[in-house]
Amino acid sequence: MAANPPGQAFPNKARVAILAELEKERRRLIQSQSMNTPGASISLSRPSLKEFRDNAEQQHIAAQQKAALQHAHTHSSGFFITQDSSFGNLILPVLPRLEPDS
């Protein structure tokens, strides 16, 4: 492997300096934008993988809820609603309250 010529190290240093300057400018723009419009800041970074997975999981659960609700309404005479459940139930049956005979 041949050694790099001495003139080639300078362009790499220049690239690093340019990238650092661009990063500073990006941060300054984000900060000034958030100060000017506090409720309407636009993120210039990509969403994280965790956010992407959470969103995909929520869409999948919503699709499962819709399918389960549709199936329940089709094959049952009861009434069902979708609701978040800590037990993993996608739909819950709605039972009417009957007043006791007096």
TrEMBL record:
Where in the cell is the protein located? Answer: Nucleus
Q: Which UniProt keywords apply?
A: DNA damage, DNA repair, Nucleus
- Keyword Coiled coil annotated: no
Q: What is its main location?
A: nucleus
InterPro entries reported for this sequence: SOSSC
Give a Gene Ontology cellular component term annotated to this protein. Answer: SOSS complex
Q: Does the keyword DNA damage apply?
A: yes
One GO biological-process annotation of the entry reads: DNA repair
Q: Which domain of life is it from?
A: Eukaryota
Q: How does it assemble?
A: Component of the SOSS complex.
What's its job? Component of the SOSS complex, a multiprotein complex that functions downstream of the MRN complex to promote DNA repair and G2/M checkpoint. The SOSS complex associates with single-stranded DNA at DNA lesions and influences diverse endpoints in the cellular DNA damage response including cell-cycle checkpoint activation, recombinational repair and maintenance of genomic stability. Required for efficient homologous recombination-dependent repair of double-strand breaks (DSBs).
Tell me its family: Belongs to the SOSS-C family.
Q: By what name is this protein known?
A: SOSS complex subunit C
Organism equals Acanthochromis polyacanthus
